Amino acid sequence: MHFFLFGIYPYIALSVLLIGSIARYERDPFTWKTSSSQLLRRKQLMIGSVLFHVGVLVIFLGHLVGLLTPIAIFDALGISHGAKQLLAVIAGGIAGVMAMAGGLMLFHRRWTDPRIRKTSSFADIAILALLLVQLGLGLGTIFVSVNHLDGHEMTRFMAWAQMIFTFRGGAADQIADVALVFKLHLFLGLTIFLVFPFTRLAHVLSGLFAPLRYLFLRPGYQIVRSRRRRPLEERRRAHDARQGETGLRIATPAEQAR
């Protein structure tokens, strides 16, 4: 079971994340949104949203850089494993508390306000609850990490992540005997990747790739629709046709207005 959860399940989760996101964007692009409830209760949303998004962004970038950067690069920069571990504990702890506080505000707002609850789907509430549990597990790992400030424990997770992304065998063996809270944190993180394309979390990809799409993939023109009942060109053709049939010059709409 350990081999399946941490040696095979990561590839299942990441494959569903990639293929599911592409399929949803191609088949149901109009569902690719956050379904904002800002108009229903703005103040609590703004405070909670800022805390939650800033905290989660710092955590995500910290995990991305911390886990996928080769250890040799840290060694070349003179950053010891202990210093990296201490930085992860301090920065991750602060960001985790911010994200947890903001997430609890957002969950309370969505769960207790009747109007927002009415406009929320099961997936909206479930994914937010799942993220809060994941943040709680992440904060729980800090209490274990402070007992391993030499950084050795962190290098095992780095080796696991890098072996997964480079398709090398034996990744699960790297974390075989780590604390249970770490394993739960990893499993739930992979599960969030698994359900990512089917929830409102998909809008995260829009924030990452929308600027690139605007700069490099936009068609280069703007569609303008006339508010008039008949487009101006059609009215001109009809005017020219009537003028040709009667042999008389008919005043244009602009001339008639004058």
SSE inventory with pairings:
Elements (H helix, E strand, L loop, with lengths): L1 H26 L14 H27 L2 H6 L4 H32 L1 H6 L2 H24 L6 H14 L14 H16 L7 H15 L14 H15 L6 H5 L1
Helix pairs in contact: 1-8, 2-4, 4-6, 6-8
Report the end-to-end length measured between terminal Cα atoms.
84 Å
Total beta-strand segments: 0
| CATH top level class name of the largest domain | Mainly Alpha
Largest sheet: none
What is the count of DSSP helices, taking H or I runs of 4+ residues? 11
Q: CATH topology of the largest domain, anyone?
A: Fumarate Reductase Cytochrome B subunit
Briefly say what this structure is.
This protein has 258 residues and is mainly alpha-helical.
Which properties best describe this structure?
mainly alpha, Fumarate Reductase Cytochrome B subunit, 11 helices, 258 residues, 2 domains
How would you characterize the overall build of this protein?
With 258 residues, the protein is an all-alpha fold. The chain has two domains: 2-217, Up-down Bundle (Fumarate Reductase Cytochrome B subunit), CATH 1.20.950; 230-258. Helices cover 72% and strands 0% of the residues. The chain has eleven helices and no strands. Helix 4 packs antiparallel against helix 6 (122-145) and helix 6 packs antiparallel against helix 8. The radius of gyration is 27 Å and the shape is elongated. The termini are far apart. The model has no long low-confidence stretch (mean pLDDT 82).
